[in-house]
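Sat 14:20. Reprocessing the chain from the morning session after the first attempt stalled halfway. Input below, unchanged.
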Amino acid sequence: MKNFPLPRIDTDDKLKDLLLPYCRFSKGEIKQDSSSTHKIACIDAADTSSIKELMGEEKAVLAIQDPPYNFVAFEERKTEQFIEWCKTWIKNSYDYLKDNSSLYIWLGADQNNHFQPLVDFVLMMRDTDFESRSFITMRNQRGYGTQKNWMSIRQELLYYIKGSPYYDVNSEYTDIPKVLKGYYKTVNGKETENLERSKSEFIRAGNVWIDIQQVFYRMEENVNGCYAQKPLKAIQRIILSSSRMNEIVLDFFSHSGTTLLSAEIAGRRCFTVDNDPIFCEITLRRLENYRRTGNTGWQNSNPFEEEILNDEKLKKYLKKNYNITNEKKNFNIEYK
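Finished this time. Tokens:
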């Protein structure tokens, strides 16, 4: 396995400055991919006029939003400011979703800060025209905690709807076989148990997802430099259950480009946004890399490998600040 990682990009302004010259995006720019299937926009999700330019006359049937709620956890933005900002992109989501559509929102609940911003966000959503549908929990295989508290291993996913959207229940089935009998019920005069009545030999995911591996450096889909990357399997489950072929999926926080790549794999179109040119570039490179190689990420390599190898400033910076050595095939990293 190639060992050529990148540190977390979004919190390192110097690293961003060094990577920016290798990006094909500038602020305010909207690009279509080479097949004109998807759009990537370097704009702010709360900028209504820019979202209007992105969407044109088209509307989506599904929005998957993963806002940077860690700003609240790290006290970079007060909860009240975060919620006011959320109101704008939530309205933009509503305005550019069809009358019958779905909205999924990944959001955190800081157990050391009264479970914010989840609590105030849910209260805010009561004043919108969306209807709540489900509160999904995805269980991480790894977590964080102390010896004096329950380990934190969950990610929260809110599901809202507009109108009466399409939902494919078959997409909810997992790879976990049913093994427990029970729930007896009389059907046509015969007593049956749940395995006999089931439409599948596998269990449904329900609203507690225990079958999805969180992304880490040994997985092919890993995109080094992107913090809190969501698993392809989770996004695929959402897209397959809540949209049909060739329909539009809307994503206002592209980051590692997982929603766009999932849409590509599933035969959907994706209009995605990030206000940072670097993450727009990563999104486009990930799509191009998949089409060229079939790989869903870079495992423990990174999207800017060739540029770094040929850029002395980048190599020196990574070595000095993260102990990344500059041997071509043996990069190592220590986070400070």
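The first helix runs from residue 13 to 19.
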